[in-house]
Structure formats: C-alpha cells, structure tokens
C-alpha cells in the first residue's frame, strides 16, 4: 500500500482546499490526489479509500499504468543495490503513480489491512 503523502506541499494543498466541492471530489475519487498529492489535507484513510476505489481490481477506473508495458516491466525488476523493486518501500508512491496496475496496487486485498513498511515519511 502506498504511503499517505503530501507531495504537492502542505501550503499548496491548503490553497486547493479552498476550492470546496472540487477539492472534495478529488479527495474522494482521485487516487493520486487523495493518497499521494494531498493525503493529509484530504484526511484520507488510505485502506478505506483504496478498498473503495480498487474494489473491482484491475477493472477499476483508477487502475492503469501511465507508461507502457516495457517501461513498467523494467520498473518491476529488483534494484541492483537494494534488491527491491521500484514498486515497494520508499519507491511505492512513485510506483503507484507510474505503473499502478503492473505494481499490483489495484488489488483490493492490499487495502484490507493496514500495511506499513516503516518507510513512510512523517509529514507536518
């Protein structure tokens, strides 16, 4: 499961929050925005939202890769130095954004229990 991040920055997310209904929709329907870009400002419960948005697995609307199969296959390969793929650990948010389907982030089971690999940054 990807970490709850505020990659757009706390001040940017706070300004976006002033857009009211638009912000509400992004926080409840857009996986990238709600989990990676403005998670803390959205007050996203990642397991709950992930279970909702990915309930249909690979058939979910939010399940897609932003890059082609060749790129995502390379993305899945273990890093030579760490031995982990770019889909896990500190890189999970990057994998979620670029190769969500290939990295397995569309599987609703990963959102059914709180998973924490200890590498999520503390924000705020």
Helix-strand topology string: HHHHHHHH
> What composes the largest sheet?
none
Number of strands: 0
Stretches where pLDDT is under 50 for at least 5 consecutive residues are none
For the termini, the CA-CA separation is: 21 Å
Overall number of domains: 1
Q: Level of helix content?
A: 40-55%
Overall shape: it is globular
- Rg value: 14 Å
**Number of helices in the DSSP assignment:** 8
Measured by DSSP, the beta-strand proportion falls in under 5%
- Class of secondary structure makeup: mainly alpha
**How much is the average pLDDT?**
88
Organism: Mesorhabditis belari
Protein name: ShKT domain-containing protein
Would you mind describing this structure in some detail?
The protein has 124 residues and is mainly α. It has one domain (10-111). It has helices spanning 10-17, 21-29, 31-37, 39-42, 46-53, 69-76, 92-98, 100-103.
Fold blueprint:
Blueprint: H1 10-17, H2 21-29, H3 31-37, H4 39-42, H5 46-53, H6 69-76, H7 92-98, H8 100-103
Helix pairs in contact: 2-3
Organism: Mesorhabditis belari
Protein name: ShKT domain-containing protein
Overview features:
124 residues; mainly alpha; 8 helices; 44% helix; ShKT domain-containing protein
């Amino acid at each position: 499961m990807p970490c709850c991040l505020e990659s757009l920055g706390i001040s940017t997310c706070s300004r976006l929050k002033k857009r009211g209904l638009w912000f509400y929709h992004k926080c409840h329907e857009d996986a990238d925005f709600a989990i990676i870009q403005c998670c803390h400002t959205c007050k996203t419960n990642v397991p709950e939202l992930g279970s909702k948005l990915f309930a249909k697995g690979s058939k979910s609307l939010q399940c897609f890769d932003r890059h082609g199969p060749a790129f995502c296959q390379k993305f899945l390969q273990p890093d030579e130095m760490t031995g982990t793929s770019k889909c896990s650990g500190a890189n999970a948010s990057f994998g979620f954004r670029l190769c969500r389907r290939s990295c397995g982030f569309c599987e609703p089971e990963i959102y059914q229990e709180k998973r924490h690999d200890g590498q999520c940054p503390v924000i705020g």
